[in-house]
Amino acid sequence: GAGAKDSVLMYFSDTMTGKVTGNAVEDFKMINNSFAWVTGLKPSAQTVSIFYKEDKAGKPLNYVEPNTPNTQPGDYYWFGDGFVNQEDNNSINIFGYRTFDKSNASWDFELRGVTLITIPAGKTLEQHTQIDLPLFLNLEKIGKGTFGAGIYVNTKAAGAPKPDGYLYIYGVLDPNKQLIVARVKPKDIKKITAWRFWNGTAWDENIDHVKPVTDRVSNELSLTPLRDGRYLLVFQADGIGNHTAVRIGNSPVGPFGPLQNIW
What sign results for the dihedral spanned by CA atoms 211, 233, 159, 121? Predict the structure, then answer.
């Protein structure tokens, strides 16, 4: 739906910075999060502004750093999904995963917790707020992971075809990239006591009762309503696999059909 007069806020997790020269990159550094503001349809230096912070020497830094009571030394943010909360004066809300590197080895990282980052309408990115939410799970015989991988806004204001007024917030547990589901009204997103978790048959107030609804998904995914009343779950098969894949569900919590590779 983007048009020539629209503008879009984009945000990224791992971001490669530096100057491309031939087949090499000078001053290469990878930071963990950044933002971009895009106007118009043709990408150029005039229509795309990319934001990250810099140190005194001009080297790139993460745009947002964890700053909550639960933050520990060494934590940084990877971003989950986000949405515009029309029941909170159109604030922008993004899930942030507090992550830390256990060593300098590749892929030797671990998640410590989940934060909700809120940018109030009319404010700058620097004026955001952060709150810890207990959405990190480590369930015996099921797995470890977080909520925030995908958000489906099932409200009338968002144009949902079957609105019930809830946010459906998806999470992923390892091993086997199992999909879990929670829901909450947009106005109550910061009130953890208002959250409910799908236990396989009903919405449960106890997060530890959550049950996976399917598997082999990824930590970034989306749910889209189809014209026939079903729902399309789109993800990268097996987290970091070779295919973009889909499953089709009868409701936002499934049941979901077989994995179908589409690209």
Answer: positive
DSSP-assigned beta bridge partners for residue 169: 151, 182
**Six-digit token pair at 92?**
């922008």
Q: How far apart are CA 129 and CA 166, in angstroms?
A: 23
Q: Can you read off the two tokens belonging to residue 189?
A: 């997103």
Please report where in the chains the tokens 């993800």 appear, as a residue.
235
216 is written with which tokens?
A: 């082999």
Provide the whole-model pTM: 0.94
| Angle at 153 (CA atoms; ends 224, 257), nearest 5 degrees | 35
For the record, the structure tokens of 165 come out as: 């007024």
At 192, the amino acid letter reads: I
CA distance 200 to 213: 7
CA gap 119, 126 in Å, rounded: 8
Q: Is the distance from CB of 94 to CB of 117 less than 8 angstroms?
A: yes
Distance from C-alpha of 236 to C-alpha of 232, rounded to nearest angstrom: 13
Copy the structure tokens of residue 68.
């909550």
Q: Tally the residues of the chain.
A: 263
Tokens of 226: 């189809």
Q: What is the per-residue pLDDT across 34-88, written as a single tens digit (0 to 9) for each?
A: 999 998 878 888 899 999 999 999 999 999 999 999 999 999 999 999 999 999 9
**Which pair of structure tokens corresponds to residue 253?**
């919590």
236/68 Cα distance (integer angstroms):
31
Asked if 210 and 200 touch (Cβ cutoff 8 Å), the reply is: no
Spatial distance between the Cα atoms of 223 and 41, rounded to a whole number of angstroms: 25
Q: Which two tokens stand for residue 13?
A: 């997790």
* Cα-Cα-Cα-Cα dihedral sign, residues 145, 217, 14, 102: positive
